[in-house]
Amino acid sequence: MGRRGGSGWVWFCGVVAAAGVAGCEPSNRQLQMDPTRAYVDARSRLLQAAEDPDPRVRTHALEALAATEAQAAGPVMMQALRDDRLPVISAAVMAVGETCYAPAMPALLELIQHPGTPPKLRCVVIYALHRLGNDSYTTQLAELLHNPDKLVRAEAARVMGKMGEPSAVDLLKARQMDDPDVVVRLNIAESLAVLGDERSLGLLEGYTKSMFVEDRLIAVAALGGLRHRRSVYVLRRLVRDANQGPIVQVAAAGALARLGEQPDPEPVLQAARDPAGVLRKGLRRGATLQENEIDNLQTLALLSLEQIGDPAAVDVIHPLLRSPRGPVAVAAARAILRLIRQYRPVAAAPEPVAKPPAQPPPPTQPAATQPAPPALRTSGGKD
To answer: Pick from 16, 319, 334, 367: most CB atoms within 10 A?
Structure first.
């Protein structure tokens, strides 16, 4: 099974696939533990994760808080906008955009107007500003779509699809024909499919046959967001195809549930309980099981259980709040909060540990010598 890079792609694909609980028919099982306790435990774990020393965990926690707390997580987002790591800042900006948290507008303007803001982060800021009703910088995405860095081009393509503007179709199609990098073409195909381009749905289906597992996972996540009968057909095939491996099968089950289908939850529950055991069943003789493979499968299983929507799965998920692996614990907390939302206690808005610093007024015309915002000065530009 080929790979292009590190393990971060699994979380990205899982989050994309887990954009909303599908609301499938409940099973005959009943939740055994106290749901209010489960909710409080999960929420507390997320708030702890938002301040974890590991920036990966902070990033995942921000994404989960946006999905579970919405604008109530605004103070945490504001604090994260002053983080010293770019992936955390980017996650905070995306959370602001996803939740339309208007108090963050001055901070977004500060970032977009500063010449030191990295191009990839600039893409996300433009998206968040668009969501808040400010399209003054949207035309910059056309230039960012031709940036020398393939990851910047991929991010520009992704946010153009998320904006839902049909006017982006021609720009994306032109870039799709010329771009040499598959990660860019895959993100363009996803965005075009979201914007209603039928041909791109076929391209996504083709990517489910890629030799690279991350290509297949991104395609699965994209198909789960397209309410089209072809998406359902392709995802059903992937769930049944043992050659895909458990990671793709579990992700496809979650994507199917997002489309209102009812996949068998048992393989997904087993992957959440014992990911190492599930992976060993298909391990070739002499092959070594990697820790990141175990984490990736368990994380995707939790996100897929969130999609399947059975509250009884909380009995399996709750012990994973204590996982020493931060991304797994965050995924468990997110799944619990989404599965038993009706048990949210009154006045459960999160509070940051420290009050975020006051935002300075945005400059009207930034000078070339203007100092970078604190977060951009200390990041080192390596993230």
So the answer is: 334
Q: Hey, how many other C-beta atoms are within 10 angstroms of the C-beta on 303?
A: 29
Question: What three-state secondary structure class fits 288?
Answer: coil
CA gap 376, 383 in Å, rounded? 11
> What pLDDT was estimated at residue 287?
76
What pLDDT digit, counting tens, does each position of 268-306 carry? 999 999 999 999 987 877 678 888 899 999 999 999 999
Which CA distances in Å does 64 have to 20, 119, 145, 206, 330? 12, 24, 28, 30, 7
344: β partners: none
What count of other Cβ atoms lies within 10 Å of the Cβ of residue 373?
19
Q: What is the pTM of this model?
A: 0.83
- The token pair at 247 is 């990671």
> What confidence tens digit (pLDDT) does each residue in 103-157 have?
999 999 999 999 999 999 999 999 999 999 999 999 999 999 999 999 999 999 9
Residue 51 tokens read as 């301040």
Q: What CA dihedral angle connects 361, 367, 371 and 372, to 10 degrees? A: 80
**Residues of the chain by 3-state class (helix, strand, coil), percent to 5:** 65, 0, 35
Can you give the C-alpha Rg of the chain in angstroms? 20
Spans of all domains in the chain? 11-345
Distance CA 163, CA 131 (A): 8
Say if CB 66 and CB 77 are below 8 A apart: yes
**How many whole angstroms separate alpha carbon 210 and alpha carbon 162?**
24
Q: Which of 46, 70, 79 is nearest to 60 (CA)?
A: 46
Hey, what are 317's tokens? Answer: 């998920």
The number of CA neighbours under 13 Å toward the Cβ of 35 is 16
Q: Please state, as a whole number, how many other Cβ atoms lie within 10 Å of the Cβ of residue 342.
A: 8
30-53 pLDDT, tens digit per residue, is 888 999 999 999 999 999 999 999
- Distance CA(205)–CA(208), nearest Å, equals 5
Three-state SS for 102-147 is HHHHHHHHHHHHCCCCCHHHHHHHHHHHHHCCCCCCCCHHHHHCCC
158: nearest Cα among 231, 226, 100, 218:
218
